[in-house]
Amino acid sequence: MAKFEPVLMANMHKADSHTLKVYEAGGGYRGLRKALKEMTPDQVTETVKASGLRGRGGAGFPTGLKWTFLPKNHPGPIYMCINADESEPGTFNNRYLMELDPHQVIEGIILSCYATKAVTAYLYIRVEYPLSRRRLQSAIDECYAAGLLGKNILGTSFSLDIFIHVGAAAYICGEETGLIESLEGKRAWPRIKPPFPAIEGVFRKPTVVNNIETAACVTQIIDRGADWFKTIGVPADPKNPRDPGSYGPKLYCLSGHVNKPGCYEAPLGITCRELINEYGEGIWKGRKGKAAIPGGISMGLLTEAEFDTPLDFAGPGKVGCLGLGTAAVVVMDETVNMVDFLHNSCRFFAHESCGQCTPCREGTHWSLTMLERIKAGKGRLKDLDLLLEIGDSIGIIPGTTICGLSDGAAWPIKNAIRKFRGDFEEYIKRTNPNGYMVTEPVPALLQLGAH
Amino acid sequence: MGTVLVDGIEVPVADNERLNGIQAAERAGIDIPHYCWHAGLSVVASCRMCLVEQGTKDPATGKITMIPKVVPACQTPAKDGTVFITNSDKVKQCRAQVEEALLIDHPIDCPICDKAGECRLQDYYFEHGQPERRADIRPFHSPKREMGDTVTLFVDRCVMCTRCVRFTREITGTSELMVTNRGSHEEIDVFPGFPLANKMSGNVVDLCPVGALGDKDFMYQQRVWFMKSHDGICTGCSTGCNIEVEENQDRVYRLKPRENAQVNQWWMCDEGRYGYHHVHAEDRQVGPRRREGDKYVNIEWNTVTAEMKAKLTAAGRIGAVISPHLTIEEAYLLIKYVRSIDPAAVLALGPVPVIGTDERFPNGFTIHAEKAPNRRGIEMLLAHFGGKVLSFVDFQKELDAKTLRAVWVSAGYKKSDWNDETTARKFAGLDVLVVQDLFSSPLWNMATYQLPGGSFAEREGSYVNFQDRLQTAKFAIRPPVGAWVEGQLYWRLLERPGLYQSRKVLTEAAAEVTALHLALGGVPPTGLDLRANQLAGEKKEAATV
């Protein structure tokens, strides 16, 4: 396979790549100048729609389509929210973009706002990214000075302000309505939908919530055209009319037991094995792989045999994962015990569950205490069935919660136990040889300082 | 007009109605369990107890398409063609799972919990729960703490429905309560130094579907299954909130609001809620007494009824002070009685206490400054019976003129501070002074006859509130031994046979008094708007002119 020429990361190797000077020298703001001069907002929307760009935040919803959900001829204001609350474990692609090429992101934001007629953009960034915040702020300041932001951008009638809002580091603030609540100064409890943010979002006004990488893609689409974008990636499956295809480049975050972890740009549809071998230079220490998380911890698990799954929007779903998610691949070698993995995953979600819906609040906590029990050598085979029952019943897909956080909590449980049940049974039998088969209720275990 | 299908039952829904699944099912007689949803608060759909299956019926083909997941009924609008299924195995399993999840962290301390017996967690467990506990988890423990002067939070019993939080945000606008922490460590709390201190705080206890919020006034006083509930009207102010008086063996233990969309919605204020303690006050007067020289002697009620007429007739001109705490029926009988002895008897409205100004909450609930339940009703009667109709101040001037020889003062106030020595002195020198009250006061101590009356919980009858709504209260308890409720005394004084029958009196009064004509057809549970009558009257007059 020919080495893919990076697009989103093309500027990042340059010295001072975060400055306006370097960005413009590499052709930056060319697309914006062209769009403001030659294109109407609707044409920008149509171009993005034609490119087949799908949101890079995790759900993969077609971006252009999302923009068209805004009410027509709304008196305004319409708001744009940029989700930089990148808190999915294993994910750091937005950080690369914000730290090393913030202008590419800002150009995308300006274009998106132009297309959606938004007058204010809020950039919601997590507090753990101080460098990203500083770089973005200085980039925004440069843009104001250069007339690329503020009143009458580049002499047109289009005006835009971008404000950076720093979140207090909660996973749930990455959910779009949780983000909106948090931005409004409230507790980040996701809202019930409908109404969707496109109808009633920030301050009860129509709002689009987009990801940082989506904005960067918009920049490239307007600059290079929708047709160019469509040459990259995986076309729509003709047998499945509901598949919009997976086009464009994607920043994959590779971490875990590989020789060369990092953020790599590749066309959508690269397989997990290609990513590990060609970009990550293989599993570390000459070991064999055991499992990989396809796109952030909430997407579930691929077994070694499933490493040939293409990492596009449809691929991981075909092998029982939740989806592509943030395309953050975490590789585990053969020495990893899945009990440890699942314990870690459950601890994360029990800690991050916002606590609004009963099934998620209590289900994540219950699954964690069960994993604590198993780890403490008091597990029983019955616990695995209980864990699976929790995994199958919580989430927005069965309909028992408001947001998708608990789907993310459920998928690692379901995948780990269904795909690696042997690991769990062996561990339980080994550590609890006298009690593993007990099915009656046993006295409550003292909580082991879970979180 | 549309039709909603709930478990195959057709429920008609008007076009302008905005019902959710729970309300639609209620019309079909089906109860969908829920914790967080309350008709008076915003929808959060977070407890997930009301999960149901939902679909739509194609009006053309009649084909029903169900959506594959479960939805919360509280959040799903019931429109024409909406189909709900509330009894499928899937729904039952969802309910069992939510109930199980809520009980994981619950201490299950029902034997010492005041809510036991009226707790949704208990009820739904029996109805929808799992047969056995599968979670081997020690319940979450967090000590109880005070939210304010009226409410204690038992933290570990909470199911995080956030009804109380929404109440303080949406109804009182005071926002004292909030949620702290995250996930299963969540707790309801107040900010340090900002306790739950609003004048409707007691409502959060009623809203709490479990035993998490405890009313300090009611705590550990009585098991709820021993109590009987009686429909009453709060007499604390002129709003006339609909209440339930809950008693056991002639002792009132608490008052709760009763839903009435026209008056108090689902709420009542703390002043009314905790304003029943005078009913069982130690110093309440019992047993009628007659002044003989400087002393009072105990007499029988039969003696009172036997000699009163002769005494009043002998005195001559009679004045009667009609308390705004009397019901329409009682006031009507009292007026009838004094007028039967002296057809020109002077009638006056008793003192109407006004404290502060009306307090209006953001959602419209108002605590009125006028601390009496029936001023409007008494005014209607006085206007009808005519003659000299006086305020209490004018009545005192009448006393100064020394034309009156006998005065009947009805009272029934919650405290004895409605008259002082100065007022009382004006009543000196009368031949007969009858005072009917709950507590001893300067005026009481001058009376020829001291007649202990009944409190609001013991009397029955109708009150007319500030917006001319006539509402009827039933009696909840019997008066203490030795006291006669006002109605019974007047009934006997008028030599009517048997026991006092307030409904009969109301019909009689409605037939006679134009302003009350509407009450002829009976009083519905939510009361009767008497203004409708006036409007009709005004229109008729306009038409004839």
What are its keywords?
heterodimer, A: 451 residues, alpha/beta, Rossmann fold, Ubiquitin-like (UB roll), de novo design (two linked rop proteins), 3 domains, four-stranded parallel sheet, 17 helices, disordered C terminus, B: 545 residues, alpha+beta, Alpha-Beta Plaits, eight-stranded mixed sheet, five-stranded mixed sheet, 14 helices, 21% strand
Briefly note the structural class of the backbone of chain A. alpha/beta
The number of distinct structural domains of chain B comes to 3
The helix tally of chain B amounts to: 14
How far apart the termini of chain B lie comes to: 41 Å
Please give the radius of gyration of chain B in angstroms: 28 Å
Biggest sheet of chain A: strands side by side, in what order? 8-7-11-9-10
Secondary structure class of chain B reads alpha+beta
Bin the strand percentage of chain B. Answer: 15-25%
Poorly predicted segments of chain B: 540-545
Main sheet properties of chain A: 5 strands, mixed
Question: Could you please describe the fold and organization of this structure?
Answer:
The complex is a heterodimer of chains A (451) and B (545). Helices cover 40% and strands 12% of the residues of chain A. Chain A has 451 residues and is α/β, with parallel strands linked by helices. Chain A has three domains: 20-231, Rossmann fold; 246-333, Ubiquitin-like (UB roll), CATH 3.10.20; 338-431, Up-down Bundle (de novo design (two linked rop proteins)), CATH 1.20.1440.230. Chain A has a five-stranded mixed beta sheet, covered by helices on one side. In chain A, a hairpin with a 5-residue loop joins β7 and β8 (262-267). The radius of gyration of chain A is 23 Å and the shape is globular. The N and C termini of chain A lie far apart (46 Å). Mean pLDDT of chain A is 93; it is low at 447-451. Chain B is 25% helix and 21% strand. Residues 540-545 of chain B have low confidence and may be disordered. Chain B has 545 residues and is α+β, with helices and mostly antiparallel strands. In chain B, 47% of the residues are buried. Chain B folds into three domains: 2-87, Ubiquitin-like (UB roll); 108-116 and 133-280, Alpha-Beta Plaits, CATH 3.30.70.20; 289-539, Rossmann fold (3-Layer(aba) Sandwich). In chain B, a hairpin with a 6-residue loop joins β8 and β9. Chain B has helices at 21-27, 89-104, 120-128, 163-170, 203-207, 270-273, 301-315, 328-341, 375-385, 392-400, 421-426, 486-493, 502-512, 531-544, and strands spanning 2-6, 9-13, 51-57, 64-72, 82-85, 145-146, 151-153, 177-180, 187-190, 213-215, 228-233, 242-248, 251-257, 289-292, 295-298, 318-322, 346-349, 359-360, 366-367, 389-390, 406-410, 432-437, 449-452, 461-464, 469-473, 528-529. In chain B, the strands form seven sheets. An eight-stranded mixed beta sheet of chain B has the order 15-14-23-22-21-16-17-20. Chain B is elongated and about 85 Å long. Classes of the chains: A alpha/beta (451), B alpha+beta (545).
